Amino acid sequence: MSVNPNQVAGMHPNDPTLRSFLEVAPESHFPIQNLPFGIFSTDGDSPRAGVAIGEMVVDLQALESSGLLKTSASNAGASLFARPVLNDFIALGREATTEVRTRVSQLLRHDNPILRDDVALRAKVLHAMTSVKLHMPIAVGGFSDFMLSREHSLNCVDIVGGAAAGQLWRNWTYLPMAYNGRASSVVLSGTPVKRPRGQVLNEGQAAPVYQPTAKLDFELEAAIVVGRGNELGSTVGIAHADAHMFGVVLLNDWSTRDVQAWEAQPLGVFVSKSHRTSISPWIVTFDALEPFRTDGPEQTPPPLAYLNQKGQRNFNVHMQASIKPKDHAKPSVVCRSNLQALYWSFAQQVAHHTSTGCNLMPGDLLATGTVSASGPNAQGCLYEATRDGQQAIALEHGGTRLYLEDGDEVALTAWAQGQGYRVGFGECTGLVTPVDSNKNGAAT
Amino acid sequence: MSVNPNQVAGMHPNDPTLRSFLEVAPESHFPIQNLPFGIFSTDGDSPRAGVAIGEMVVDLQALESSGLLKTSASNAGASLFARPVLNDFIALGREATTEVRTRVSQLLRHDNPILRDDVALRAKVLHAMTSVKLHMPIAVGGFSDFMLSREHSLNCVDIVGGAAAGQLWRNWTYLPMAYNGRASSVVLSGTPVKRPRGQVLNEGQAAPVYQPTAKLDFELEAAIVVGRGNELGSTVGIAHADAHMFGVVLLNDWSTRDVQAWEAQPLGVFVSKSHRTSISPWIVTFDALEPFRTDGPEQTPPPLAYLNQKGQRNFNVHMQASIKPKDHAKPSVVCRSNLQALYWSFAQQVAHHTSTGCNLMPGDLLATGTVSASGPNAQGCLYEATRDGQQAIALEHGGTRLYLEDGDEVALTAWAQGQGYRVGFGECTGLVTPVDSNKNGAAT
User: Fold this and answer.
1) Which residue spans of chain B are classified as CATH 3.90.850.10?
2) Taking every annotated instance into account, which residue ranges of this chain make up the domain Fumarylacetoacetase N-terminal (chains A, B) (predicted)?
């Protein structure tokens, strides 16, 4: 018990050779090199902050109350780790959150006896993942959805057809385009997705009808979780964007393509996507993703100065979407993509979002839009993969799909592959359930 | 002091003959028939709930602690009136908020001695408007901006020109179209509006630049303040929409038309409007607006059942926008319009917004979009009035404008005209200040 934690502080928390005293399977998404943050509760206790490692959750509030997590975050008054969302903690900014991750890494190392050898402390601080309930990690004040993938954008133009087919809008290579999403309907992975009704113009009809959507789709996305915010009227320069970026979650922007096609011009999407959006429970920090930086696609023309990012902009993160029909034993992967393919970067999202002085807030989500890549099976939504329901795709384990059917469970996942370990995101899932029996939408 | 308030409870709070013992000028926006809600503070005290009457503010927390405001709102635990925003109070729904307004009306009547004749109580409960500071009345979780005015939409199509000129989008008469706005940048009336920089494609140029906007505009709007919310996955039927609508504020959706023109296709507006949006401080309740219901324009084709509203949909509320250049003594009115002109109604906004199951939250703003009407000087923004800066308008008190100039103060106002009294909204103002000296937008 008398070991000074500084004795084991020599290695960087991202060092590939680090090992924990807790067992972590090689294919686990949560090795000691990851340490994503979330909110969990145990029976009868309030939701609080935790860190995932292997099959366990580290209770940050318990660590702090044991005196083992004295960081600048602990000086902010009432414990930031005892709160039901991470917003106040991540609002402190990168230095503070990095410090906590580094400290947790030290405490979990195989050669640090402080927690390893203290049975009573382990019982207090460590919970089996199977024994906890996960909650929304953040209160989402703002949700913006971008369109960072050139492949996705080209596919959409191609499917719509017309004069613009084969080339993007004139502004596309000058700014990372985006729209404001609906924050109130962002839910945690695992929340069922009831098929919505909506106003739709059916093919060949003169007038629209209000009916259950026949084109329910998923979108394979990731999203920045904003850490420290910026003041209204200020901008975040591209070189300072990292300081405002806490981490990344998976995001499924469930879409009703028939409602969307009818409503989207001229103001953009609204009720076609506001019925539900799912995010994964564990926020993977940008600290953990740092070793996986990589070059992005060449940006031609070069971005304006306020968007001109030096160095490696992108991250090599494999992404995958699967569908498991209700009568299937196993999911069928329907998309394999990679964040590396995105034309615009996370930092460019932040710089553009604030370019006119908009204030970002801790916990805001800045989503990538559908992450498609080039090549077969690399389309991040069924709209692209089936060309808006015109060409069925075959599922690996049998059957075909044009759009999602009731009973389908969609799972998004992602991971960065290290040498002998994976920095992963876990899953973002949602089960499609039938439209409810309220036929006229008149309930209150 | 022994008068039973029920003795004076016979008259409806909207009765045109009601008078208060407090002096209210005939042109005041806040007669006893109005009683709008807001948040105020006095020197050294915390922000709390108040009601405006004439030149005074009624302190609801003080009324409640004096035992004079025992309503169902008082039973909700810690005082809802002591909180810095009205969200928790208005979340109770129309019955609860109506009850409070009715009780305040009783206490302010000329023939009720309880407050009138108690000098000590009056000193505690009543504050001169000039002595208080007003605050944001709500925490805005969601901000949606609609396009309810047919005249505004037709003007926009006409200015853009092309094949679509003279007719609206095919979906326009079937649904009240809208987009998600940015909630974080909604500010209180009186907050200066710094001219933003943004990405703009100047005429005749091949590539865009990042520069101060040359086309800063106002938009004359009103917005529903949502009271009781609805659960995610539920819809609010048109006949039940009123139960979710607490009141209305003025809203100025400050817009940068050059940034907007360059960014808006295909996803809609984003940074061109997210720099700042202003609202008026006093929320005029739908209870107070009820006597001013009127027919809206005929809706052809008839709306689908979920949007088909019976009875009088609209409200006869005069709206006005003025500009006061910095060297002018008086403002020049540049737009006179009326909410009555809106094609789609407030209730239809709510029904459509929730049609796919989106959850509304207490304090959400559902804005009308620019309120234009037919006829001269009835265009609710400079984009329309000057045809995007092509035709200068003359100001009543001298000078012309294409777009807003530094030093211009824009004031929106609105009122419903009763017999001998006005149910008004006060003002929503903003002074345009110069772009800041940060030339490259690189501040953090």
Assistant:
1) 143-433
2) 33-137
- Whole-Å CA distances, B293 to A381, B55, B120, B181, B339: 46, 27, 40, 28, 10
Pick the CATH number of B5-135 from 2.30.130.40, 2.30.30.230, 1.10.730.10, 2.60.120.200: 2.30.30.230
Q: Which chain A residue shows the shortest CA-CA distance from B193?
A: A233
DSSP H stretches of helix in A110-254: 113-116, 119-125, 150-160
| Residues of A in Cβ contact (< 8 Å) with B165 | none
CATH 2.30.30.230 domain residues, chain B: 5-135
Q: What is the pLDDT of residues A402-416, one digit of tens each?
A: 999 999 999 999 999
Residue range B414-434, pLDDT digits in tens: 999 999 999 999 999 999 999
Determine the distance in angstroms separating the CA of B171 from the nearest CA of chain A, rounded to an integer. 7
Contact across the interface for B356 and A183, Cβ inside 8 Å: no
- Please, which residues 82-121 of chain B have a Cβ atom closer than 8 Å to chain A? none
Q: For residue A34, which of A47, A55, A52 has the smallest C-alpha distance?
A: A52
Cβ B420 vs Cβ B25: under 8 Å:
no
Give the per-residue pLDDT at A397. 96
**CATH T-level topology, domain B143-433:** Fumarylacetoacetate hydrolase; domain 2 (3.90.850)
Interface test with A, best of B170, B270, B277, B440 (most A CBs within 10 A): B270
Report, as an integer, the average pLDDT of A357-378.
Answer: 96
Reply yes or no on whether the pLDDT at A161 is more than 90: no
Model confidence at A388: pLDDT above 60: yes
Phi, psi of B319 (to 5 degrees): -130, 150
The verdict on a CB contact (< 8 Å) between A184 and B233 is no
| CB spacing of A357 vs B275 below 8 angstroms | yes
Q: Which of residues 304-323 of A touch B (CB under 8 A)?
A: 304-306
Both tokens of residue A112? Answer: 């640090």
Query: Which pLDDT value is given to residue A167?
Result: 85
Nearest alpha-carbon partner for B260 in B193, B208, B311, B215: B215
